[in-house]
Amino acid sequence: MKKIPALFTAFCLLFALLPSLHAGAAAAPPKLAVYVDKENHSFIPLRFLNGFAGIQAVITAAGGPIEVTRDGSSVTFTPGKAGASVNGQPVSSGEPPLSENGMTYLPLSLISQTLGIQLQWNKDGGSLTLTSGGETATLPVQNGTLIKSTAPAVVSGSHTYKVGGRSFSVQTVTVSLLHPSVKLDAVLAGNTVGKTEALASIAKRSNAKAAINGTFFDAYTKGSYYAPYGYIISGGKMLKNSPGDKRTVFAFDSNSLAELIPGSDFKARFDAGTVQGAIQAGPRLLVNGKVSLNVAAEGFRDPKILTGGGSRSALGLTRDHKLILLTSGGATIPQLAEIMKQAGAYQAMNLDGGASSGLYYNGKYLTTPGRLISNALVVQTQ
Fold first, then answer.
1. Which pTM value belongs to this model?
2. Of 12, 212, 253, 353, whose CB count within 10 A is highest?
3. Whole-angstrom Cα distance, residue 122 to residue 108?
């Protein structure tokens, strides 16, 4: 009987610790992104620099100097103070280092000049490619204000857009790809090529906040194998190959930097080793904010795509790294392109549609599919 109070006390102590343990587990590190402030000063994450192209970047002590070195060259910053020293000599750095969301950022210009990092700004994709010492990396560029972990990561909405005198009611889910908690994945039905499963089931077993149907597949087969069409990549592994397929691919890396890639270019990009996940569908709807349709060139022959209207699913990317997932009824492909433009997309592509079209958010359907599907793009939040 004397053991009960001790066990009860231990239980209460564990119970009291659970919230803090859960909070620690839930915290996700900020995404690695180049930050450009409102005065157009550019900053690079210290965490990215450490290990890139042989660079060593360390904070020597709490609140102490920050040292970045490579091949005998060094840059030293003092937190909270403008200016720096290069190889022991004082220089102007423009802006002092800054810390946000647990991440330290250093002035990019001085770092790149001193350590020999070549920079290529990619306007279309809102990213920066850094090359040095035979290594290359591409980071998203975040302008204006850094995203805080307390900001909403995924939101839904209902909208009406008018195209050519006709109104279309649509459902949307908008994902902040640079939010620390967001992770994307492409998920096969039953985790197996050729299976089918309800979109909600795929989402729930993936612990997804949101999900949308993915690639086209052979939904009308009389057999038990429902072949998906196009590339499907998950966890950096190719689940479904599709050599020679020209249709557009939505791809993303481990940092949630996403882009739309022509199918004929995708295999080389995948072989470079930076693609974490991808789904291929198409046709492409928007290029750099303008309607851009070349349906036949992507290999489409089906009248449902060429001329017909119907239930549609689509995804788009905004200039500030948001992913728009959208469903609409009755639209032709040209009308869907206009809808995506009005929704705020800068790049956009079509997904499988018809009875496959479905959108899931926060435990329920916003658009209910009319059949089981082959695969889905899911959005997880940590």
1. 0.91
2. 212
3. 16
